[in-house]
Amino acid sequence: MRPLRLPKPLRPTLWLFDLDDTLHRATPVIFERMNRAMTEYVMRHVGLDQPQANDLRREYWQRYGATLLGLMRRHGTDPDHFLAETHQFPDMDQVIDFDKKVRRFLKHLPGRKVLVSNAPRHYVQAVLASMRVAGHLHAIETIESMNYVPKPARSSLARLLKRHRAGHARVVMVEDNLDNLKTAKRLGLTTVWISRAAYKPAFVDFKLRSVLQLARHARFGGAG
Fold first, then answer.
1. pLDDT band per the 50, 70, 90 thresholds, residue 167
2. Nearest to 171 by CA among 25, 14, 39
3. CATH fold for domain 29-86
């Protein structure tokens, strides 16, 4: 593999890390349980059978970008109730799947590290506690702090960048989701795609198989 050569920045780096399928492997176990819980929630609260609930979720995903936004706008769903019901993982320590080297990677990565997740805070905190990496992050942004408007919404990412004074830093977004990276690139961010795909879209600056490859191949600069 050709080494990844990031130019040495004159300013400190602000890292925006996704969580699921970026810092840990949420596919298939965690995502499967989430999807099942969301379908069951729609069945209970909208009064549909399973095929109808799946169709509605697909429609809302295409129209609004998320099941939650569709439920909020069309059914007046309380977002906190939905998130509490669909992100229950009392056995997180048993289902979490991650490389323990991520702890050392985050600890020694220079720059400010902000976690940006479309998941609710209680779920994110549970994952980070199981991984034991929360202490290596400077801030956590969840769906609540994005006013329930998830990535890839440009407005949410723009507000986040302003909140963290991104104008004073070189900003790198590390994600497994291409839609989120497309928005990031339009806002002028450096984009890193965590994927095993054989292709790389033009708006992706670097494609890596694992977030750990950042430590092996990147030349970092700037103060932490």
1. confident
2. 14
3. DNA polymerase; domain 1 (1.10.150)
Q: Is 42 in contact with 50 (CB distance < 8 Å)?
A: no
pLDDT at 11: 61
Instruction: Select from 218, 205, 145 the least CA-distant residue to 178.
Output: 205
> What is the pLDDT confidence band of residue 169, given thresholds at 50, 70 and 90?
confident
Cα(77)–Cα(83) distance, integer angstroms: 10
pLDDT computed for residue 224 by the predictor: 33
Average pLDDT estimate for 74-97: 97
Q: Which of 95, 81, 87 is nearest to 119 (CA)?
A: 87
Residue 8 reports pLDDT greater than 70: no
3-state DSSP of 116-159: ECCCCHHHHHHHHHHHCCHHHCCEEECCCCCCCCCCCCHHHHHH
Residue in 79, 92, 93, 94 with CA at minimum distance from that of residue 38? 79
β-pair type (206-208, 13-17)? unpaired
Rounded distance, CA 122 to CA 142, Å? Answer: 9
Residue 48 C-beta-side C-alpha neighbours within 13 Å: 15
CATH number of 13-25+98-217: 3.40.50.1000
* Confidence category of residue 127, pLDDT binned at 50, 70, 90: very high
Return the domain boundaries, the chain: 13-25+98-217, 29-86
**Average pLDDT, rounded, for the chain:** 92
